[in-house]
Amino acid sequence: MNNEMKALVKAHAREGLWLQIEPVPDTGPDDVLIRINKTGICGTDIHIWNWDKWAKKTVPLPLITGHEFAGEIVELGRNVEGLKLGQRCSGEGHLIGKKSRQSRAGKFHLDPETRGIGVNEQGAFAEYLRLPAFNVVALPDEISDDIGAILDPLGNAVHTALSFDLVGEDVLITGAGPIGIMAAAVARHAGARNVVITDINQDRLDLATKVSDITPVNVTKDELADVQARLNITQGFDVGLEMSGNEIALDQMIESMVMGGRIALLGIPPCKKPIDWSRIVFKAITLKGIYGREIFETWYKMIAMLQNGLNVSNIITHHFNFGDFKHGFEAMKAGSAGKVILDWT
Ligand code: NAD
Ligand code: ZN
Question: Which CATH architecture has domain 4-150+312-343?
Fold first, then answer.
C-alpha cells in the first residue's frame, strides 16, 4: 500500500464534493484500518453536498464525507483483539465517548458526546477508513458488501421498528424513503398484521411494494381512512413509525392512531413545528424519539434477521463506480431512488 488514497472530500464551502488524493489515515493502537469496498449515499450526504444551513454549522472543512460502508480489515492496532486481517466488516459510524453516565451504564447510543464519521470526523467515502476496533461489526459470509454498506440506515429502520412489540399489530409508517421502506420490511418480518406506508411520491411507494408485502397509500390521491376500513383496522393503528420528518404526515399519524397507541419518531423535521398536544393526551399516546442505532443490540438483531429471511435487497436501485459519484448524487437528488451504492474496489 502506498500512503495515498482517493477520497470524496467536502473541500470548499459551496455546493459539491471533490474527489481528491488524501493521505491514508494512521491507525492508532485501538483502531483498525478498513479497505472500503462499497459505500451507501445517505440523505445526510446530500445535505453536506448542498452545503445547507445544517451542514454549514455542523461539518468542519475539509472533511472526507460518508458513513455507510462495507470493507475488510487491512491493519490492526497493537491493542486490538478478536479481529483479524482480511475480516469483512461494516461498522457503527457513531463514535462514542466513555465518560457519560449513559455510556458507563452501557447505553452507548445515548452518549451525548457522540461524533459521527463523515459528519464530524473523517469518513468512509475513501479507499481506506480508520475506525476504533470497538465500532467494527464483522460481516458473516451470507451478507454481501452491498447489504453491508446499507446496515447503517437499515439499523435506523430496525431500531425504530423494534421499539414496540409489533406481533399481530397494525402498523402505520409515514414516509417511504429508503428507511421507511426498510422499516416496513422489518415490521412485516417481525410479525405485524398490516403494514401501511404513506408517501406523496408514487415512485417511492412503487419501490416499497418491490421490497416487501405492504399496503402503499399515496396521500395526495387516497384517503388513509378508506384504506384502514378496507383492511378492517377499526379503531386505528396500534404502532406508528414516523419516517418522513413532515409535520402533515405526523399529524395524520396522530389522527389515525388507536387509543393508547405507540409512536416511534425517526424523521427529522426541518424546523420547529406546532403539534396538537391535546390529541396526544386524550388518546394516551406514547411517543419515543429514535437516534441512530442501539450499540450494538440493533446490529445484532439486524444481522440475525438478515440471516433468517429478512430481505431488503430490492431497496438498492443504483450502483456506480466511485469515480462516477456525481451520477450517484444526481440519482439521490432526483428523489425516486432507493439506496445508491458507490463501488470502491
Ligand atoms: P427521505 O427524505 O428519503 O424520505 C422521506 C420520505 O417522506 C420521502 O419519500 C417523502 O416524499 C416522504 N414524505 C414527505 N411528505 C410526506 C407526507 N405528508 N406523508 C408521507 N410521506 C411524506 O428520508 P430517509 O433517508 O428515508 O430518512 C427518513 C427520515 O429519517 C428523514 O427525515 C431523515 O432525516 C431521518 N433520519 C433520522 C435519523 C435519526 O437518527 N433520527 C437517522 C437517519 C435518518
Ligand atoms: Zn446515513
Answer: Alpha-Beta Complex (3.90)
Quick one: which H or E segment has residue 229?
A: helix 224-230
Q: Where in the chain is the domain with CATH 3.90.180.10?
A: 4-150+312-343
Q: Rounded mean pLDDT of 49-55?
A: 97
Distance 35 CA to ligand 2 centre (A): 19
For residue 80 the three cell numbers come to 486490538
Average pLDDT of the chain, as a whole number? 97
Q: Please check whether residue 24 is in contact with residue 7, taking contact to mean a CB–CB distance below 8 angstroms.
A: no
Residues β-bridged to residue 172: 196, 240
Are 179 and 266 in contact by the 8 Å Cβ rule? The answer is yes
Catalytic site includes residue 286: no
DSSP 284-326: T-EEEE--S--TTHHHHHHHHHHHTT---GGGEEEEEEGGGHH
Amino acid of residue 186? V
Mention the CATH class of domain 157-289: alpha beta
189: annotated active-site residue: no
Give dist(CA 131, CA 25) in Å, integer: 10
Ligand nearest to the CA of 116: 2
Q: What angle do CA 68, 333, 252 make, to 5 degrees?
A: 90
Atom of ligand 1 nearest to the CA of 289: 41
Residue 1 predicted with pLDDT over 90: no
Atom of ligand 1 nearest to the CA of 178: 26
Which cell numbers in the block locate residue 307? 440471516
Q: Which residues line ligand 1 (CB under 6 A)?
A: 43, 156, 174-180, 198-201, 204, 219, 243-246, 248-249, 266-268, 290-292
- At residue 36, what are phi and psi to the nearest 5 degrees? -80, 130
pTM recorded for the entire structure: 0.98
In which residue ranges of the chain is CATH 3.40.50.720 found? 157-289
- Could you report the per-residue pLDDT of 17-51, keeping only the tens digit for each? 999 999 999 999 999 999 999 999 999 999 999 99
